[in-house]
Amino acid sequence: MVINDIKEVLESFQPVGLDEIGNSRLMNRVDTKYLISLNKIPHLMGKMDGAYRALEIDNSRIFSYFTTYLDTDDFLFYNQHVTGRLNRNKVRYRRYETTGLTFLEVKRRTRKNRTIKWRIEHSPDPGNKYDETAYEFLTEHLPETELKLSPVLVSSFKRITLVGSDINEKITIDQDLAYHDLVGNQVKFPFLAIIEHKRERLINGSPISNIIKDNLIHPTGFSKYCFGTASIYDIPHKNNLKPKFLLINKIENEFNKSSDT
User: Fold this and answer.
1) Per residue in 7-16, is it b (16+ CB within 10 Å) or e — as a string?
2) Which site from 6, 8, 67, 197 is most exposed, i.e. has the minimal number of CB atoms within 10 Å?
3) Mind listing the domains of the chain with CATH numbers?
């Protein structure tokens, strides 16, 4: 199985601990995403060994993430993204299963194509209502200070994190992506891998850039939140994401053909 192949390659990487990452957290960064079939990951990772170390926590190198996205009743953040607005925002609760920590996060894409993230350790109450701490945090970082936000979408995925040995850069590889809404509708994408290359600025000579180029893989903008929302809901501007849906259908076909051989 491809998952076993990924785990086998991953074990060949030198480990790096969470306390060693430091500046590699890259809360203000440039990032590039790539969507590929999951069965291509072992080959790509095999080319990375030596240039990157694998994050390891409690003897684990693949971590489960659960994200609850917040939005307005009319999906303001979703619409900001799919209509191409600059300086757009997302708000989410993200739970890191390995550490047991949950953070409330604001993520902003700026006019200069940088991603900036702010977060505080915070969990929602059972009624998903804000306390004063959450309200003050959101007020500080959102331009729309009087937004009424509530949970609209939950996503889960598993992540591998690789940290540059010589360059301050980070690669995340997400797999086993799934979504559900608050009434039980769900969709799953077990064939999909999302590679994200994160660094302080655009740099030449990055090993991952060369590997990606050699394998003829092209970057593509991709929002987990927008894609999941359009997959679950009958929502306006869905056609704006049609190229993404076509690409993911192509990736699914590639995965299925490879699995049959």
Assistant:
1) eebbeebeeb
2) 8
3) 2-260 (2.40.320.10)
